[in-house]
Amino acid sequence: MFPASQIGTQDTWTKLHHLSTTDYLTYEGGKFSKSRGIGVFGDSAHETEVASDIWRFYLLYCGPETGDTKFTWDGFISADNNLLLKTLGNFVNRVLKFINSRYHSIVPDWAEHHESSFDAFKEDVNQLLAQYTRELDAVKLRAGLFIFLAG
């Protein structure tokens, strides 16, 4: 109805180009219910004092893009501890320490430090980046996140 109204006005509205839908996210195996107090909602998520980016990450990570998925506190804690802190956080920390200790906190110009082994690595990274971009363009956010984490 709304696109027809937009077209009918003959104004230059931005039209919908892609519709993204999801299946259901359940809470610990059951349905979310605000009236019965079952689930985690904006106000209760805020009360946990967990950063909103961590909530966003987990909701993307377990998002119901291709089928029903469930929110569990164990899954939330595990994803936060193992993926964000141990894997991604450790990687970022090691890279920053390396740059600080070896390059006096300045990222070196890659063109000045060329090695033939970089070519294969660069090709692999570019392939992952292209796949990541294709997933995001298709609004497959969860698949894009998995590619990011695997890379």
TrEMBL record:
GO BP, sorted A to Z: methionyl-tRNA aminoacylation
- What keywords are assigned to this protein? Aminoacyl-tRNA synthetase, ATP-binding, Ligase, Nucleotide-binding, Protein biosynthesis
| Entry-linked Gene3D superfamilies | HUPs, Isoleucyl-tRNA Synthetase, Domain 1
Question: Superkingdom, according to UniProt?
Answer: Eukaryota
Instruction: Offer an example of a GO molecular function term for this protein.
Output: ATP binding
Q: Where is the Methionyl/Leucyl tRNA synthetase domain?
A: 1-96
Output this protein's name: tRNA synthetases class I (M)-domain-containing protein
